[in-house]
Write a structure and sequence with these properties.
By secondary structure, this protein is an alpha+beta fold. Helix content is 32%, strand content 14%. It has two domains: 114 residues, no CATH class; 57 residues, DNA polymerase, domain 1. The chain has seven helices and four strands, in the order ααββαββαααα. The chain has a four-stranded mixed beta sheet with strand order 2-1-3-4.
């Protein structure tokens, strides 16, 4: 079994996000009522990223968080000793579970973090303009490094965005750009 370095894995996710752009550009075919509901699962499933030292990191989608817990231990190749550190209750949508081994080589704890922007886009979950990093914003169509930096700087200087249309306060971003990236945003 070979492992991909993180930069290659993230690049792969970006490519998948680009391939999935046709789906994201058809919001009428995949209505989103809750911004954290994956567009690929209209039933309201949960998409979680799992990272463990002994398995290849990946995204897992499940109808419910409880089903995900059962699958996480049984089907994903996680060691059985991870069962005692699995988060209680259903997993939140857009979550990254990072398992760590202790000195004895056994699964000792799990850190729960927000899912990275590229992974959120692959799952069909939009980016939050008020939390996305510059690196995440670059993934949006029509937003390059310069615009992404301006979006972050404007957010820090003028406060959070109340709706996607607020992006027009950035010089060079007009209504057409806002409409192009709207399907990629969680609001």
């Amino acid at each position: 079994m070979t492992f991909l370095p993180n930069h290659i894995a993230i690049g792969f996710l970006v490519v998948i996000a680009g391939v999935c752009s046709a789906v994201a550009r058809l919001p009428e075919a995949f209505p989103v009522s809750d911004p954290c509901t994956p567009r690929v699962d209209a039933a309201g499933g949960v998409c979680v990223e799992i990272v463990h030292p002994s398995i290849v990191p990946g995204l897992v989608c499940s109808p419910t968080g409880r089903d995900l817990a059962a699958r996480g231990i049984a089907d994903l190749g996680l060691p059985s000793d991870c069962a005692h550190v699995w988060p209680e209750g259903p997993c939140a949508k857009c979550t990254r579970l990072v398992f760590k081994d202790g000195a004895n080589g056994k699964c000792s704890f799990v850190r729960i973090e927000p899912m990275a922007g590229a992974a959120r886009l692959v799952c069909g979950v939009g980016l939050d303009l008020n939390r996305a990093t510059q690196e995440d914003l670059i993934l949006l169509p029509g937003i390059g490094p310069k615009r992404a930096k301006q979006i972050v700087e404007s957010r820090e200087a003028k406060g959070p965005y109340s709706e996607p249309g607020d992006l027009v306060r950035i010089r060079g971003i007009g209504e057409k750009t806002v409409e192009r990236i709207r399907p990629w945003l969680a609001w």
